[in-house]
Design goal:
The protein has about 220 residues and is mainly α. The chain has eight helices and no strands. The chain has helices at about 5-35, 40, 55-65, 90-120, 125-145, 155-160, 170-190, 195-215. The longest helix is centred in the middle third of the chain and has 31 residues, at about 90-120.
């Protein structure tokens, strides 16, 4: 958690969440439709319009995050008819994988477009900080979406790659997934006086690995 208000971080979070989640949901809706599911089109989700992919409460919590307050936020859930998706479990896993990959793709495009500017000597101005924070937040969203706990995309990826007879054994994860996330993200750091094991031992290493793929160092 950041100790003081950071203007560049605030705008980076707002941009990354509003535009990033819209792009993520669009990509997943597009892939699901291409794999045979007409539901996203019927629900007007095959669009880049942010209004189609956000819920008011999720945006409120996103603003909490943007000012450095620990919170859990979300976009509007994507309704799918998984029985219509070609490829069965592999197809459903692919749709889920597109979620975190879309955030990574956006981070890559921002880095590609701004690389020469950011590598310029002495680039410590507001715009440079905004771009670095934007890449950082997009990679954070990517890493968080890869967490293998329901309702994150990481859970759907793993669930559909495991043998089918594992599904009944994972029902408890779907039943209590939200509570597990709340415990890991909000409650555990509270009792550990601000130390967040999930971030330190999972999210942060994933962010560093993703940043390494881009050839940059963020932390």
């Amino acid at each position: 958690m950041r100790p003081a208000f950071d203007t560049a971080y605030f705008f980076a979070w707002v941009l990354a969440f509003i535009l990033g989640v819209a792009f993520q949901k669009f990509c997943q809706a597009f892939v699901a439709e291409r794999l045979g599911d007409p539901t996203p089109r019927s629900k007007n989700r095959v669009t880049l319009n942010p209004f189609a992919h956000h819920e008011p409460l999720g945006l409120v919590f996103a603003f909490f995050l943007s000012v450095g307050t620990t919170a859990i936020t979300w976009g509007k859930p994507l309704e799918l008819n998984t029985f219509r998706i070609r490829g069965g479990r592999l197809g459903r896993s692919l749709v889920a994988l597109v979620g975190p990959l879309s955030f990574f793709l956006l981070a890559f495009l921002v880095w590609l477009a701004s690389k020469s500017y950011l590598l310029g000597a002495g680039r410590t101005d507001f715009f440079a900080q905004l771009l670095i924070n934007l890449i950082s937040v997009l990679l954070t969203l990517c890493a968080f979406n890869l967490i293998p706990i329901y309702p994150m995309d990481g859970y759907e990826i793993i669930k559909n790659l495991l043998p089918a007879d594992w599904e009944p054994r994972l029902l408890w994860v779907e039943q209590y997934g939200i509570l597990i996330l709340i415990g890991l993200v909000l409650l555990l750091p509270f009792f550990l006086q601000g130390f967040n094991p999930l971030f330190e031992f999972y999210v942060l290493p994933v962010i560093r690995a993703l940043a390494g793929l881009l050839g940059i160092t963020l932390f």
